[in-house]
Design a protein that fits this description.
Blueprint: E1 8-12, E2 17-19, E3 28-34, E4 37-40, E5 53-54, E6 59-60, H1 62-67, E7 74-77, E8 81-87, H2 91-97, H3 99-124, H4 135-145, H5 149-162, H6 169-179, E9 196-199, E10 204-206, E11 214-220, E12 223-229, E13 232-239, E14 244-245, H7 247-252, E15 259-262, E16 266-272, H8 273-282, H9 284-308, H10 313-327, E17 338-339, H11 344-350, H12 355-365, E18 371-374, E19 377-380, H13 383-407
Antiparallel strand pairs: 1-8, 2-7, 3-6, 3-8, 4-5, 4-7, 9-16, 10-15, 11-14, 11-16, 12-13, 12-15, 17-19, 18-19
Helix pairs in contact: 2-3, 2-9, 3-9, 4-5, 5-6, 9-10, 10-12, 10-13, 11-12
Length: 408
C-alpha cells in the first residue's frame, strides 16, 4: 500500500513574491488553493494563452522544478493566497494518488508547449502554423529530390492515405511506384500493434502534419526531429536513449508539428492512448519522465523566443550557443573547451536568421579566436567566453532600450 502523499500548505500575503525569475535550484512547485497569483517575466516574449493571472487549481513553478533549470518567470500574490507546495521528488506519488491533478499538469504543459512551439515557428521559421494535411506531398517531394527514398516513400504513402483524391494524388502514386523498390520504409498503415518497433537509419517514424495517436520512448539509437520550411530541412533536435517524443499529438489529438526520422538504427516503445491511460497509474516513473521532458522543452523554447528579441545578429548567435550550453548543463568554466553537435548552418537556423544575414554574422563571430569550425561542428576553447559575450550583448540592448524610453 503506497505511503500517503505528504502535502505542505503554504500561505502568502498580498504582494508577496513566491518565485523569482532567474533563481536556481528550484526543488518544488505550487498548486493554488485560494487567491490569485500573477505570473510575469522580465521580457514578455509572447502573450500566453489564458493570460498571466492564475487562480485556484492552477499551478506555477513546475517548469523550473521539473526541468532542473532556473525559474523562467516571477510569481507574485495578487491577494492573500494559499497554495500546496509539492516537492519535485514527490511527483510520482502525486501521479498515483491524485491522478487528475497530475494529468492537468501534463495536459497544461502540452498545450503550453504547442502554443509556444507555434509562436517560435511563426517568428523563426516564418511559417504558417495552420495544419494542412496536403503538406505531406511537399515533404515527400523534398526527400525525393534528395534521393532519400525511405522518407519520400513514407510521406507519399501518408499523403495518399489521408488525401486519396487530393490534387497531387496521381503524381504521388506514380512517384511512389518508382521509388518503392529502393525504400526500406516501415510501419506505414497506422494499424501496427507492436509495442516494440525497429527503425533502420533514415527511416521515417512519422511526418509533420499527419495525425498522431502514439508517443514513443527511445530504447536504443537516436531520432532527429525536423521540419521542411521553404524547401529546406530544418533540424530541430536530436533525441537519444531515454527520450520521449510525439506526446503532444497523443495528449491533444492534434497533427504532428514536425517529422521524426531514425538518426541511426533505432528501437522504440510505441505507446497509444489506451496504453498511456494505464501507464499513468501503473508506471508513474515514465509519466514523471514525460513531465520532465515537457518542462525542459518549455524552458528551451522560452529561451529561444527571448533570443529572437535580440537585435544584434552576432549577439543572437552568442546567445544561441549559451542556450545550448545551459540546456546541456555544461559547466561554464573558463579555459575549458566544448564541441557542439551542430555547425554554422544549424546555429543560424536555430536563431531564426535568414541564411545570408546569418552567414555574415557567423563570419563576425568567427573573428573571436576562441571559436572555430571543425568537421562542420562549432568548437569553443573557452566556455566562459560564450557566457561573457552573450551577457554583453543583452546588457547593450537593455541600455539602448532605456535610452530610447528616456527620449520619449
Amino acid at each position: 500500500m503506497p505511503t500517503p502523499l505528504q502535502l505542505k500548505i503554504v500561505n502568502f500575503t498580498k504582494d508577496a513574491y513566491i518565485v523569482v525569475e532567474g533563481k536556481q535550484n528550484a526543488d518544488h512547485f505550487y498548486i493554488i488553493r485560494s487567491g490569485k497569483v500573477r505570473v510575469s517575466k522580465e521580457v514578455e516574449v509572447v502573450q500566453e494563452e489564458g493570460g498571466n493571472v492564475l487562480g485556484p487549481g492552477d499551478f506555477f513553478g513546475v517548469v523550473a522544478a521539473m526541468s532542473g533549470h532556473s525559474h523562467i518567470e516571477t510569481a507574485q500574490a495578487l491577494t492573500d493566497c494559499s497554495a500546496i507546495s509539492v516537492n519535485k521528488d514527490n511527483f510520482g506519488d502525486l501521479i498515483v494518488q491524485n491522478t487528475p491533478v497530475a494529468m492537468k499538469i501534463i495536459q497544461g504543459f502540452s498545450r503550453r508547449m504547442r502554443y509556444l512551439d507555434e509562436a517560435l515557428a511563426r517568428i523563426t521559421l516564418q511559417q504558417s502554423t495552420e495544419p494542412d494535411i496536403g503538406h505531406l506531398f511537399f515533404v515527400a517531394e523534398f526527400y525525393a529530390k534528395q534521393s532519400q527514398f525511405n522518407q519520400a516513400h513514407y510521406a507519399y504513402h501518408q499523403y495518399l492515405r489521408y488525401c486519396p483524391n487530393g490534387p497531387h494524388a496521381q503524381r504521388a502514386r506514380e512517384r511512389l511506384e518508382k521509388i518503392q523498390p529502393y525504400s526500406q520504409a516501415v510501419y506505414l498503415d497506422g494499424s501496427e500493434t507492436e509495442f516494440t518497433r525497429i527503425y533502420k537509419k533514415n527511416t521515417m517514424i512519422f511526418s509533420e502534419m499527419m495525425p498522431g495517436g502514439e508517443l514513443y520512448i527511445i530504447q536504443k539509437g537516436s531520432v532527429k526531429i525536423t521540419k521542411i520550411v521553404n524547401d529546406n530541412e530544418v533540424l530541430l533536435a536530436v533525441l537519444k536513449q531515454g527520450d520521449i517524443f510525439g506526446e503532444m499529438s497523443l495528449i491533444e489529438n492534434k497533427p504532428r508539428s514536425a517529422s521524426a526520422i531514425a538518426f541511426e538504427d533505432t528501437q522504440l516503445l510505441a505507446v497509444n492512448r489506451e496504453n498511456f491511460a494505464r501507464m499513468v497509474s501503473s508506471q508513474p516513473q515514465i509519466i514523471t519522465r514525460l513531465t520532465q521532458l515537457l518542462a525542459e522543452r518549455i524552458w528551451f523554447i522560452y529561451k529561444q523566443l527571448a533570443n529572437t528579441l535580440l537585435k544584434d545578429k552576432v549577439g543572437r548567435l552568442y546567445d544561441g550557443l549559451l542556450i545550448q550550453l545551459e540546456r546541456n548543463r555544461v559547466p561554464l568554466r573558463q579555459g575549458e573547451s566544448y564541441i557542439f553537435e551542430f555547425g554554422p548552418k544549424e546555429l543560424i537556423n536555430m536563431v531564426g536568421l535568414p541564411m545570408a544575414e546569418g552567414r555574415e554574422a557567423m563570419r563576425e563571430l568567427l573573428k573571436n579566436s576562441r571559436i572555430k569550425v571543425l568537421d562542420d561542428r562549432i568548437v569553443i576553447s573557452d566556455r566562459a567566453e560564450i557566457e561573457k559575450q552573450a551577457k554583453y550583448y543583452r546588457k547593450m540592448q537593455k541600455i539602448e532600450r532605456a535610452r530610447r524610453q528616456s527620449r520619449l
